[in-house]
Task: inverse folding
């Protein structure tokens, strides 16, 4: 089989690595990939951007690709799956209509309300109907969100009414471009955050191993929000009872609602949840794809074949799929470029990758490139070093052994990934 992975980050390196391990797969292409996918056995990069839908379809047709798996949300929200389907090419991911769960926060809030799925109370505004009085009447803090895709930056937590009003006006005034033509103003929820990721095929669903990520840049979950500074699996907060509640109160009604709306879901579905003190799983967001960095530790634990799983979902035989997990824990530490998550450094040569490759665990590349024969930084989240172990703390020490072998100028990473699980 020939597989095409669309995207070029750590998630896509992990997807490509896992697909390449299937005995059924001869070759994996990654568009555009990174320096890690360039050297992975059976994997090669193709110089086509993830948002070049026509270029990707042309390549998949010319190369006779058997299955395409989409990593990032951009191409999904832009309708890549519909384009491939119309050309009779197998593509794993949701249609444009069901990808709106990630593409529009206002759509999702309305959807959640219609199907009585727990979420924070909210109001939606455009510049034409913005109501400052509503905002000033709400309890603080308040969460202001741009409706559309904003590269993970479109959520702002405001501690004062003045800040909330000026944030609303700035977003409606264009600070996030068209993604902010509509805004959602939302109640601030307390609790512990959980990522819950499933593979869904209309009403059939398989929950992947549980995971939890660390969104803040600094130790102790302090500092600015990022795309994710590390993640681990399993997440002990997701007890069997909570697992059951999430399936019953969030995942099942979501898939049922999508079907009732005429948009049956296919693909990875990621629910970002805030678990309230009474155990209510409130939906913060949906992503219509696998998470980054959650993919890296989750796929390290997947023992069965990922291609079989995607095919079962596409063929509607997900219930019979064989999914097996390594009972060990996996933990990934993101190594980021200096400056991230603001403007960050690029082109810093990375040393120690060969030494790390001889250690147990696996280093997945995110923002890397090859320049003049050297591997250099080329993105904010550069690498994700993943360790395995009988406990989260054993996985953590394996991951940090990898991290300590690698260096570049002004590299930054957290020293406490997994601390909540270890404390439990
Ligand atoms: P989102 O992209 O909607 O998941 O928001 C990004 C991050 O902002 C989440 O991971 C939460 O940490 C935080 N967040 C979003 N909405 C809320 C909320 N209603 N209450 C508290 N924190 C929130």
Result:
């Amino acid at each position: 089989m020939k597989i095409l992975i669309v995207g070029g980050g750590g998630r896509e390196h992990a997807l490509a690595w896992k697909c390449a391990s299937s005995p059924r797969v001869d070759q994996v292409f990654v568009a555009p990939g990174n320096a890690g996918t360039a050297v992975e056995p059976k994997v090669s990069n193709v110089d086509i951007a993830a948002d070049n839908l026509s270029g990707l379809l042309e390549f998949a047709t010319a190369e006779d690709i058997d299955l395409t798996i989409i990593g990032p949300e951009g191409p999904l929200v832009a309708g890549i799956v519909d384009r491939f389907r119309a050309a009779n090419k197998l593509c794993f991911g949701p249609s444009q209509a069901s990808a709106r769960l990630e593409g529009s926060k206002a759509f999702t809030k309305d959807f959640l309300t219609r199907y009585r799925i727990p979420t924070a109370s909210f109001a939606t505004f455009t510049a034409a109907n913005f109501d400052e009085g509503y905002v000033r009447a709400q309890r603080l803090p308040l969460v202001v969100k741009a409706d559309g895709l904003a590269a993970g930056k479109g959520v702002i937590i405001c501690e004062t009414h003045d800040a909330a009003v000026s944030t609303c006006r700035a977003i409606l005034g264009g600070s996030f471009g068209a993604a902010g033509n509509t805004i959602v103003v939302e109640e601030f929820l307390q609790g512990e955050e959980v990522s819950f990721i499933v593979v869904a095929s209309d009403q059939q669903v398989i929950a992947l191993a549980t995971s939890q990520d660390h969104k803040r840049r600094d130790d102790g979950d302090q500092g600015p929000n990022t795309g994710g500074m590390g993640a681990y699996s399993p997440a002990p907060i997701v007890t069997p009872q909570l697992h059951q509640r999430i399936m019953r109160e969030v995942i099942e009604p979501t898939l049922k609602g999508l079907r009732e709306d005429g948009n049956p879901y296919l693909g990875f579905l990621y629910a970002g949840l805030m678990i309230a003190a009474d155990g209510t799983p409130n939906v913060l967001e949906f992503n219509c794809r696998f998470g980054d960095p959650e993919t890296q530790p989750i796929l390290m634990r997947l023992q069965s074949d990922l291609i079989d799983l995607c095919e079962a979902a596409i063929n509607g035989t997900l219930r019979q799929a064989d999914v097996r997990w390594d009972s060990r824990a996996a933990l990934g530490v993101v190594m980021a470029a200096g400056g991230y998550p603001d403007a960050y450094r690029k082109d810093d040569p990375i040393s120690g990758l060969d030494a790390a490759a001889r250690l147990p665990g696996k280093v997945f590349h995110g923002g890397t490139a090859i320049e003049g024969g050297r591997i250099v930084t080329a993105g904010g989240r550069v690498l994700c070093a993943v360790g395995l172990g009988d406990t989260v703390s054993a996985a953590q020490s394996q991951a940090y052994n990898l991290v300590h072998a690698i260096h570049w100028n002004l590299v930054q990473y957290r020293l406490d990934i997994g601390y909540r699980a270890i404390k439990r």
